[in-house]
Each structure stands twice: as C-alpha cells, then as structure tokens.
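Weekly structure sync, notes
Attendees: PL (lead), two postdocs, one rotation student
Agenda item 3: pending single-chain targets
PL asked that the sequence for the first pending target be pasted directly into the notes so everyone works from the same version. It is reproduced below exactly as submitted, 188 residues in total.
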Amino acid sequence: MYKYLKHILIYNLILIYSCTDKVKEPTNTQQANDNKNFNTIINGFNKYIEKAREDLNKHEKDKRQLQNYDDYKIAIDKYDKFISWIEDNPDTKKELDTDFTEAYNCLEQRRAENASEKTLDEYIRDAIDCTNNPLSCKDTRKKYGTKNNQIFLFFTYNFHTLFHSKNTLKDILVKFKTLDISEVKDKF
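Predicted structure, written out during the meeting:
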C-alpha cells in the first residue's frame, strides 16, 4: 500500500511542478515563412543590381566602356524606387509573395536537382557570380542550365523587361506579378 502511495505522491508532485511552468506560445511557422518567395526573388534581383552597379562604377572610372550607360543608370534608379515603394506597402509585398510562388518553386526545383547542398539564395548568388567570373566556376552549364546560365538569364531578362521601359511604378508592379520563368522552366 505504501508503495503505491509513494508513486501517487511522486506523480502528483510532478503534475504540480509541471503546471507551474509557463506555457510556451507556439511559434507560428507561417509567420516565419512570410514573404519567403518575395525575399528570395528580390535577393536575386539585388545581386543582379549589385553587378550592374559595379559595371556603372567601372564605366565612370573609365575601366570599362558600357553601351547604354544612361539607360542602365535610369533602370537601376527605377528599381530602387520600386523596391522602396514595395517596402512601404506591406499588402502589395504579400501579394507579390503569392505571385512569385511559381518562379520560386521552379528555382527551388533547379537548386534541389543541381546544388542540394546550398540554400536557394546561395544558389542564385553563385549563378550570378559565375556569369561575372566564368573562370572561377566549373560545370556551370550543368548546375545553372543546359546551354547557358539560365538562372542569370532569368534575372537579366526580367530586369530589362521591367525596368528599361518607360513604365510607372504601378505598371512595373503589374508586370512584376507575372515574371517570365521560361528561361528557368523550359530551357533548363
């Protein structure tokens, strides 16, 4: 009898002590993944813009001659204004996150097939870097596309389509919602 009373007493003490612990609020995994698609695509565009800015700086220092220098400068300024505008409009940002799902999934599929050891952001960054420094990269055709670096072409084509034309921010937004993923989807 005492044997069972000891067990009951121990279980009651455990129950009492466990009830005094503060309840941990479950973290919302959806909240952690908010804007994941948007952030990944924008990081790719930011990396592309970083390369374009380097080219502009080289042109200004007479280290490299750029055709359409003024067009590049205007397009980069337009991109910066667009990103600032998007950051000030969280609803639009969330809407773009939803619209980027197909492009994100396609890029993620390519990354999983060709560079599973990297995150998607690293994969995109490396693809753009490989275009800038082709001698430092090996097997880029295998990793980033069959004929060319399709990941780089995806960002290049969409950047030029969106920001080199004379569009307002709202026109850019409409086009931005339907990114052309044919470079990554069909030609890989």
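Discussion points:
- Residues 36-60 form the longest helix (25 residues).
- The mean pLDDT is 80.
Action: rotation student to compare against the earlier draft before next sync.
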